[in-house]
Structures are given as C-alpha cells and as structure tokens.
Amino acid sequence: MKTAMMQIQKNNFLNLVMYSFYISVIINIFIAEHYKE
Description:
Structural class: mainly alpha
Order of helices and strands: H
Transmembrane segments: 12-31
Number of strands: 0
Number of helices: 1
Largest sheet: none
Keywords: Membrane, Transmembrane, Transmembrane helix
Distance between the termini: 55 Å
Strand content: under 5%
C-alpha cells in the first residue's frame, strides 16, 4: 500500500512537470506570435 502511494505521488509529479512544460511552450508560442506582427 505504501509503495502504491509513492507511485501515485510520482505520477502526479510527472504530470505536473509535463503540464508546466506544455504551458511554457504555449506561452512561448503566444509571445512569438504576438511580437511577430
């Protein structure tokens, strides 16, 4: 049970990293499009 909890926390951390990565990419694209005009 303890290892299952650790696995869930690890997966949540990986999801958080992936979400923050995608958000930063989207922000970079938005800024690039904004300054291109």
